[in-house]
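Ticket #4471: structure output looks truncated?

Reporter: J.K.
Steps to reproduce: submitted the chain below (319 residues) through the standard prediction queue, then opened the result file.
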Amino acid sequence: MHILSADTIDFRAYTKDTEGSEKVRPASAYVQELIDNLGKQSTEIKSLLPWEKTHPLFQFRPGEVTLWAGVNGHGKSLVTGMASMSLCTQGEKVCIASFEMKPRKTLERMARQWSGEAPSGEWMENAEVIESFRDLYSQFKEWSKDLWLYDQQGTVDSDLLIGVVRYAATELKVTHFVIDSLMKCVQGEDDYNGQKSFVDRLTSLARDLNIHIHLVHHIRKLENEGKTPDKTDVKGSGSITDQVDNVLMVWRNKPKEKDIAAGKKTALDDPDALLICDKQRNGEWEGRIALWYDKASQQFVASPGAAPLTLYNWPHWRS
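Returned output as attached by the reporter:
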């Protein structure tokens, strides 16, 4: 993994939009692209979610923005962490800008998800166990060569962030950029014009750079914990969901958790969480994917009792 810092890189140099002379092209150039791409549609590379059952349903496309939304504490960061590692496994280059968590903490979670194990508990006092984790994390370090993190916490200047995204795409060839979260980029939940303007800039940036931008955001408090959200529950301006290409929502099954805590029996097929696709502009599917939580690895798995993905079985769909 690599850390990006404003202390070592002048991101301001990358904040300016592309000059008009670079955007104005003759129609013949676009027609030639149409000719060159004839017959290539079937071989288009797809960027996919970690779970095989989602592959025919949803994909991340270059030039798009995906909004990841959910109630605070429902697992958005865990799911986007899994998605980021899955993208790296597929040959994509990913940069994560988490303004709520330091890079070390982000990587601590991701290393746990990647290995399927947690370095904690009394058994970590065993020298052999510690050494095995050192070896495991050394492999994670080598594996994460296509993963970058922007080291900035708290509120961020939106102009500077645009520069960071452009730098990552042009200089590092990053193809997926994760912004966690919108509330750290636009101050004030009621600044609807600010939210609209920032998301509009992101959609233009994704198109201009031909990358995929992932934007994490919160939703309003639901009427009750059993209610599943939709895109109308997203906090702030309605233009947020109007402008983005995809809306993915993470919902945690709190009623089930309460039943388990109370000693009640729950149905085996009752999911621990749902991944809800409430918008896919350039895809045909919208719907819900059931997921189950594996506590040791902090992964969401595709079926009840399924083993988490580990060092040995993260899928290499493009190998």
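Triage note (M.O.): checked the attachment and the full token line is present. The longest strand covers residues 273-280.
Status: closed, working as intended.
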